[in-house]
Amino acid sequence: MRVGIPHETAPGERRVALVPETVGRLGEGIEVVVEAGAGAAASFSDEAYREAGASIGDPWSADLIAKVAAPSAEEVARLHEGQLLIAFLQPLTDPSGVGRLAAAGVHAFALESVPRITRAQPMDALSSQATVSGYKAVLVAADRLPRFFPMLMTAAGTIPPAKVLVLGAGVAGLQAIATARRLGAVVSAFDVRPAVREQVESLGATFLDVGVQGEETEGGYARELTPEQQAAQQAELQARIPQFDAIVTTAAIPGRPAPTLITAEAARALRPGSVIVDLAAETGGNCELTRPGEEIVEGGVTIVGTTNFPATMPTHASQLLSRNVASLIGLFVTDGQVALDWDDEIVAGACVTRREALV
Ligand code: NAD
User: Fold this and answer.
1) Distance from residue 321's CA to the centre of ligand 1 (Å)
2) Which of 6, 52, 153, 300 has its CA 20 to 30 A from that of 69?
């Protein structure tokens, strides 16, 4: 069986789906073909892939293609019937992309659709990449903030620590809290899921009670708030956020536009020099002023709308993603042959096209 690793073509995408370290761990009977230069932007040379046992060549004719971003229309045209594909396919928000793959007869597995059950944790690419985003968002906030994060006592006077607020304390939010704490900031956080309070407090942050409590779905995600709850949350946050120097927002509802937590009015009420890093920018943003893919300064407040933070740390983001991808491949292959077990909830849950044909 052959696994193909293409060079990513989406603008700004610097990750690669499989790193040399993982090539040798795929198991007996699996050959890996890597497109020339596929790992270069993530600091993995063709030579390193060769040393790991891969060959450099055309990845598109392989039995299984592993990618980071969903294939473009031109890339889909290079796929053929019966191939397996693993990538971030955005199945909830890009039905036409999934439709193209179905029309091409490809068995496509979306990394986002891997069920978040305990057995699937090694394949949980949403979590591995959210960890990168949460960490990097705080570094960017610290970089843009014209103040120190830690408290400093110097001969020239005492500097108080920065106050950081993290909105949405899922995987990215918890990593943001931990990172901001390590940098010495005083951290508060809020999430609508009631179970999160304890996790926030165990990281040494304060849970900011905004008087709104949401529900958790069976999958562990938040349910969308009612319009009344959303309005109450926005009003309470508007009153509370001017005391913070940096705000990292991560609130998301799978398949839905990001909830607005910070209205334009609330953002404008922040002190000049404050920073908002909006990790929900890709799905519209948690701040009304966020411009996806851009960084703006309005009324002295910096609002960062970077949409692909993991691509800004491509080496480790790719390394973690590669382990997720390899674990998923391990589930699809027995003795060097594709053997899909549709009774396995991970296989069935992750497949977004044509599953009948391979039964
Ligand atoms: P996510 O990226 O979908 O959302 C981020 C956070 O935003 C969530 O914590 C959500 O509760 C919060 N949120 C949504 N609306 C909000 C609002 N209006 N105000 C404030 N916060 C809001 O979520 P995620 O980080 O991918 O994961 C969420 C959950 O899934 C967590 O409970 C996590 O522990 C769980 N999970 C389980 C597993 C597993 O068991 N294998 C793996 C990963 C994650």
Assistant:
1) 19
2) 52
Q: Would you please indicate which residues are annotated as catalytic (active-site) residues?
A: 116, 121, 124, 127, 221
Q: How would residue 354 be classed by pLDDT, with cut points 50, 70 and 90? A: low
The set of residues, in sequence order, having a beta carbon less than 8 Å from that of 266 and lying 6+ positions away, is 234, 237, 238, 241
- The residue whose CA has the least distance to atom 10 of ligand 1 is 222
Structure tokens at 261: 């937590």
pLDDT band, residue 359 (cuts 50/70/90)? very low
Residues 53-79 have pLDDT tens digits of 999 999 999 999 999 999 999 999 999
Per DSSP, helices labelled H in the chain are 20-23, 46-51, 73-77, 95-103, 125-144, 171-182, 196-202, 227-240, 264-268, 314-332, 345-350
Type of residue found at 343: D
The alpha carbon of 214 and the centre of ligand 1 are apart by a number of angstroms equal to: 12
Is residue 168 within 6 Å of ligand 1 at its C-beta? yes
Q: How far apart are CA 45 and CA 86, in angstroms?
A: 22
What's the DSSP call for residue 33? E
If pLDDT is split at 50, 70 and 90, which confidence band does 124 have?
A: very high
Which of 74 and 359 is assigned the larger pLDDT? 74
Q: How far is the CA of 263 from the centre of ligand 1 (A)?
A: 22
Confidence of residue 194 (pLDDT cuts 50, 70, 90): confident
Specify the residue with its C-alpha closest to ligand 1, atom 41.
116
Residue closest by Cα to atom 30 of ligand 1: 220
pLDDT tens for residues 29-39? Answer: 999 999 999 99
Nearest CA to ligand 1 atom 34: 170
